[in-house]
Amino acid sequence: MPAPDVQAFNTANWSLDNSFLVQLQDPGEPYEAACPFYVIDHPEGTVVVDTGLSHEMLDDPAGYGPTGAAFMEEFLPYIEYDESMHPRAQLAEAGYAPEDIDYLLLTHLHSDHAGHVDLFPDAEVLVRTEELRHAFWPVPIQDLFYLDGDFMPLRSPEFDVTEVAGEYDVFGDGSVIAFPTPGHTPGHQSVHVDLGDEEVILAADVAHRKVGYENGFQASFNWDLSQSVESLREVKSRARRTGADVRLLHDRGDTNALR
């Protein structure tokens, strides 16, 4: 059977203080983080991993979702995006339509990862139970990162939501496996993809930049720093065992490597 393929597409560039992404490192220095999503093209179906930052929210923060997100207006000067970066436009350029997507695998439900969920009502949504619960009742340090306009569509009967636990083999052949990496959030998960001639771990926010991954520097706003360190170690161990390359979602070098 042919091996799957994986590509990255960026929905926005968000300039953030480096110390926000990599704990206490280079405070005051800006880092332009990518806000991508991935497409895994498997012989038996197509998977989208995460959905980036919502352009609808960026166009009108106050009017976004049931309760709005007006507080996001202060971030707008630091976020660059345009119509060509919308997932619909990028998927079309790559030869896909939203209805072609069989699975939507969400690493977690923060706003920079779950911004276009509503594009994929025909896909089976794979998300962890702990993440769904936390999104609706997050701890105070994380409540700004969850926007009900992002994940409220998952409560619609139009959406087929599968709550996963443990390791989840999407196609049953070991080529695309979601595995738990809690810490950044309670229901954070990463994705191990066997491409045939190489393996890749899409580690999402296990760390935000390679320097943080390599040195164990976590973001201070993580849900549980102890679990964050354990999950980072698990990803490193898995990468050593399998020879997989680890790709972090916000690291621009990792995003560009998969484009």
Distance from N terminus to C terminus (CA atoms, Å) equals 24 Å
Q: Which percent range fits the helix content?
A: 10-25%
Task: Supply the CATH superfamily name.
Answer: Ribonuclease Z/Hydroxyacylglutathione hydrolase-like
Shape: globular
Q: What is the CATH third-level topology name?
A: Metallo-beta-lactamase, Chain A
Order of helices and strands: EHEEHEHEEHHEEEEEHHEH
CATH structural class: Alpha Beta
Number of helices: 8
Beta percentage is 25-35%
Weakly predicted, low-confidence segments: none
- Tell how many strands the DSSP assignment holds: 12
Helix/sheet category? alpha/beta
Mean pLDDT: 95
- What gyration radius follows from the Cα positions, in whole Å? 17 Å
Strand order of the largest sheet: 4-1-2-3-5-6-7
**For the report, how would you describe the main beta sheet?**
7 strands, mixed
What would you say the CATH architecture is?
A: 4-Layer Sandwich
How many domain regions? 1
